Amino acid sequence: MGGASPGNWAAQSPDQGLRRTFGTPDQGRDILKVISLRAKTAAGAFAVTVAALLSTATPAQAATYNVTDNCDVPWIACSYGDLWLFYNSKEIAVQDGYYKSAYATFYANVDDHWGTSQYQGSTLTTYRYVFGSGGNGNGQYMKNNAASVQNCAPNDNYRVYYSSGFGGTSQYFAKNGPYGDCNITNLISALKNNNASSHFA
């Protein structure tokens, strides 16, 4: 059986192996240097690209504020609200001619008593509606949390609705009386602590 004779085999030197692959040893080393340089250049370019993307990406921003009157929201054009929603029932809300309950006030159509959001530049700005002016419930969110209502509008009638977007059961509140008396009325049982929107009627 044929085979290589131990006497005819000779180990190759490192330079001989390099010459067989790349030519002369110097040529092989030059080629390896070029390959290494290209790899480093590509890696550097990738790192620069990633850094540029990270530096130009704008992080999401958000700001939230609490207001007791929807006319305090910058993008709502009105002076003051004239539909008052009280935290307490009327027996507690007004005593001896004084307000004992916190309240929120609205003007025009408010499709969600939760609040409203809008982008101001790159910032998503949110205004939440809360009860204010001191008294019981001060600072609490007012959506689905009111027990009585008074309409102080001289010309506008209102309805308060069970659901956001003016849906579900509603209750009618007539405009202010002829002598400027803002009569306070309890919400019906279906709407007490379930009052999510309000609308001109």
Automatic annotation (TrEMBL):
Highest rank taxon of the organism: Bacteria
Sequence segments annotated as region (Disordered): 1-24
Protein name: Peptidase inhibitor family I36 protein
Source species of the chain: Streptomyces chartreusis
